[in-house]
């Protein structure tokens, strides 16, 4: 009997297009056929408990071209086509035992490249945002005792300081490893999306609880009433509450810098050209913060996830801040300061206005970094 000829290899498996955006599917993920992009977006959204906002009518078209434009509608589409939250959670539970063992046995050593990354991010933060203990505080009596709709003197001062802070945030971003390798459009998109988040985080780390004050980079120290009157208005108490929630975390400058970098370099932002590249840049930052925070607090492994949760809180506060800017434009007598306006309304102009803040590629040998010191104990 003649031997039978070998059977041909089976044809490659072909999946239906991604149920969410109709792009090429890589397989079945969380219950439905989906592409790598939508799989990753859904996983991150569930794991980080993200809360998104639609700026249109909550009925945006989601396809492979538009999928990064509205995170709210993209997540809703994921649910509509059958993606399962439980599948994400079960996927995480499979690794729970290994994670627990890692927490117990990890000696918190890190490779040299991660040490270098942490040092660069920490330096970028410290050189663009002096610690509270470095500042010479000063106060003003202007509208310190009762709330008014707007104190124009305080508003002028605050808007001047906010503009300087935005420039420093741009400088911070450009010092982060890998940020300037992104497309110019993606750099602008990320800065525009995260600038308010980082601005709020920075001012909240300068909160002094026993005096209920916040201190700006020139040393100006305002109480809660003055912050309200300077332009924060109805979001003042929300901001102070967030500042109070940061205190138990006892974050140092390095952790604040890493959290700011994670907040900035985030592939979930709308309209990114290369979200996957942004995600790859974020991954070592997340790992660096996790190891640094656990090495600093060996008996408090829960501090790292608590820090990450603050990003969701910051996004909510920033949304309120953007809404506040709209009403503020009707209260101030003149136009909104250019850089603040362009940050909120016109990302294309952001690049031009921030050119002056671009840092040198390498500081000269003669330059010495500013003296730094740990933040004051809460």
Question: What are the main properties of this structure?
Answer:
378 residues; 2 domains; two-stranded antiparallel sheet; globular; mainly alpha; Erythroid Transcription Factor GATA-1, Chain A; 5 strands; three-stranded antiparallel β-sheet; 14 helices; Retinoid X Receptor; disordered C terminus
Describe the structure.
The structure is a single chain. The protein is mainly alpha-helical and 378 residues long. The protein has 2 domains: 15-86, Erythroid Transcription Factor GATA-1, subunit A (Erythroid Transcription Factor GATA-1, Chain A, 2-Layer Sandwich), CATH 3.30.50.10; 110-357, Retinoid X Receptor (Orthogonal Bundle). It is built from 14 helices and 5 strands. Strands 3-4-5 form a 3-stranded antiparallel beta sheet. A two-stranded antiparallel sheet has the order 1-2. Strand 1 and strand 2 form a beta hairpin. Helix 5 crosses helix 10 and helix 7 (184-204) crosses helix 9. The longest helix has 29 residues, at 303-331. The chain is globular, with a radius of gyration of 23 Å. The model is unreliable at 97-106 and 346-378 (pLDDT under 50). InterPro entries: NHR-like_dom_sf (IPR035500), NR_DBD_RAR (IPR047159), NR_LBD_RAR (IPR047158), Nucl_hrmn_rcpt_lig-bd (IPR000536), Nuclear_hrmn_rcpt (IPR001723), Retinoic_acid_rcpt (IPR003078), Znf_hrmn_rcpt (IPR001628), Znf_NHR/GATA (IPR013088).
